[in-house]
Design a protein that fits this description.
Length: 138
């Protein structure tokens, strides 16, 4: 089986954040760093070259493939700030309605700026997702 390319890299989270060119995006990252650290109780860790992840869970697919992944995390991409909400979004319509401007993928939440969002709704979303993942993969 192919090995996952995205895994803990041991790189410095602080050095990575210092490399985020846009000052406003860098400040949003620092806000997310504090929020996700508070919610998970875990220290941030670089996963691959550009994702900051918090905590881990172990998964096993029916195919037998297994691995470890972060409970939640984010990446300051060029176009959007990408937040990883590993539980997905199907159970969180009420929080998404309050959140503010965003787009979603399967487990990715794409936002432009945290200042456009209801941060209480965002934190509640991260709390609910982390709780779900911890229960599902206990």
């Amino acid at each position: 089986m192919a090995e996952l390319k995205t895994r803990p890299s041991g790189a410095s989270v602080e050095a990575f954040l210092q490399g985020v060119a846009d000052e406003a995006r860098r400040e949003d990252c620092r806000t997310l760093l504090a929020l996700m650290r508070r919610v998970t109780g875990a220290e941030p860790e670089m996963w691959g070259p550009s994702i900051i992840g918090f905590g881990t869970y172990h998964y096993v697919y029916a195919s037998g493939r297994e691995g470890d992944w972060f409970l939640t995390g984010f990446s300051p991409r060029k176009r959007d700030l990408t937040l990883y909400i590993m539980a997905g979004f199907s159970a969180y319509d009420d929080l998404l309605a309050r959140l503010g401007p965003h787009k979603t993928g399967k487990s990715c939440l794409y936002v432009k700026r945290l200042g456009d969002l209801d941060l209480e709704a965002l934190e509640a979303l991260v709390v609910a997702s982390v709780k779900h993942m911890r229960e599902a993969y206990a």
